[in-house]
Write a structure and sequence with these properties.
Strand order of the largest sheet of chain B: 1-2
Structural class of chain B: mainly alpha
Structural class of chain A: alpha+beta
Largest interface: A-B, 24 and 26 residues
Order of helices and strands of chain B: HHHHHHHHEEH
Distance between the termini of chain A: 49 Å
Number of strands of chain A: 3
Oligomer: heterodimer
Helix content of chain B: 55-70%
Strand content of chain A: 15-25%
Number of strands of chain B: 2
């Protein structure tokens, strides 16, 4: 199997949004998070899988996530879940990205509110 | 371009390479340790996923390592998060200037308290715990007690120096800061003097104070410089041996 092509801009704020969104539904460990991102974005967003951990650690340090060690099927894993501060941050990030995506969509489809370039 | 993880032949070597890079980049050892543990867990999951009929263990490992990411990418992802930087890198002046002095002050405080306790327990009538009083020489447990205190007092700068060296070694720092801290500790240790007198304070509770001076006579100064050299040697020697044994010298 060849290495998946990765999105070089993945680290620019998007992983926080995706991770918080995923973990708001259920607690997960790193491998599960990466697979969930891969599956739910239909591989549009792919990442060198190991780079998800610094993002998780940073979010935990900022108080947006909490972690606990849990043994499942004889293997000890670190599970992450969202804190109330993380939920608030997810709401802010979601709003910002929704606005941004709408603005870009409008640009691409030639929306009426977009000013013509002189 | 990022060097693929799978180009490194041995798993231990890969981990070592990543650990060394992260530590040298200033990432705190506890964050490095946790990162490596989670990467190892993730790699095990990837290998389990990649396993299948007709695939050799080498193929499985290569595929899993490729998915995990290149060493450059894994390093960059961690070093871009500035909050993971060690205090040794963020504020070396505090870790190698202020912290050793505070630790030495705490160690001397404990030494003074130890001396004061022994004075009250074993020499209740003596004007000073340093001998020469009406009690004359002391033997047995009392002697062991005060000798142990003396050993601790003179060894305190070395103990703190070893802590400094340990911090520097864990973070793969260059030798400048730990050496400067060792010199500082050695001079502070050499200059420290402890005085005790019961008559200095009314009520007979006993008074212990410390001051710092390098001696009034030439002989005193030579004695203190000898102490400085002893402390420096004992502090720096283990660090130098460790550095010489490391394949990647930090002096390079």
């Amino acid at each position: 199997m060849t290495a998946r092509e990765t999105n070089p801009n993945f680290m620019n704020g998007v992983p926080q949004l995706l991770i918080l969104r995923l973990l708001q539904q259920e607690e997960m460990y790193g491998y599960e998070i990466v697979q969930a991102i891969h599956n739910r974005t239909e591989s549009v967003i792919a990442v060198g899988e190991g780079v998800v951990y610094p993002v998780l650690h940073a979010l935990e340090r900022e108080g947006a996530l909490k972690s606990r060690r849990k043994t499942v099927n004889g293997r000890s894993r670190i599970y992450y879940s969202v804190t109330p501060a993380g939920s608030r941050r997810l709401a802010n990030l979601s709003e910002a990205w929704t606005n941004l995506a709408a603005a870009i969509q409008k640009m691409l489809t030639g929306g009426q509110n977009v000013e013509a370039i002189p | 371009m990022s060097k693929p993880f799978h180009e490194f032949r041995e798993k231990e070597f890969r981990e070592k390479e990543l650990r060394e890079r992260l530590l040298r980049a200033g990432v705190a050892p506890r964050h490095v340790r946790r990162y490596l543990v989670e990467l190892a867990d993730h790699l095990a999951d990837l290998k389990a996923e990649e396993e299948g009929p007709g695939r050799s263990p080498d193929d499985v490992e290569s595929a899993a390592l490729a998915r995990l990411g290149g060493i450059d990418d894994l390093t960059r992802a961690m070093t871009e998060q500035r909050q993971f930087q060690s205090w040794c890198v963020r504020a070396p002046w505090a870790m190698f200037g202020l912290a050793p002095l505070l630790l030495l002050a705490a160690a001397y405080f404990i030494a003074c308290f130890y001396l004061w306790s022994g004075w009250h327990i074993f020499l209740p009538g003596a004007d000073t715990p340093f001998g020469g009083g009406p009690h004359g020489p002391i033997y047995g447990f009392e002697n062991i007690y005060f000798q142990a205190g003396k050993f601790y007092y003179f060894g305190a700068p070395i103990l703190v120096g070893w802590w400094v060296m340990l911090m520097a070694a864990r973070q793969r720092l260059k030798a400048v800061w730990p050496l400067a801290a060792s010199v500082l500790l050695a001079f502070m240790g050499a200059a420290a003097q402890i005085h005790a007198s019961r008559t200095a304070v009314p009520g007979g509770l006993g008074h212990i104070r410390m001051d710092f001076a390098l001696g009034a006579s030439v002989q005193d100064i030579y004695g203190h410089l000898f102490y400085v050299l002893v402390v420096l040697s004992l502090t720096v020697l283990p660090y130098l041996i460790w550095k010489l044994r490391k394949p990647h010298s930090l002096f390079a």
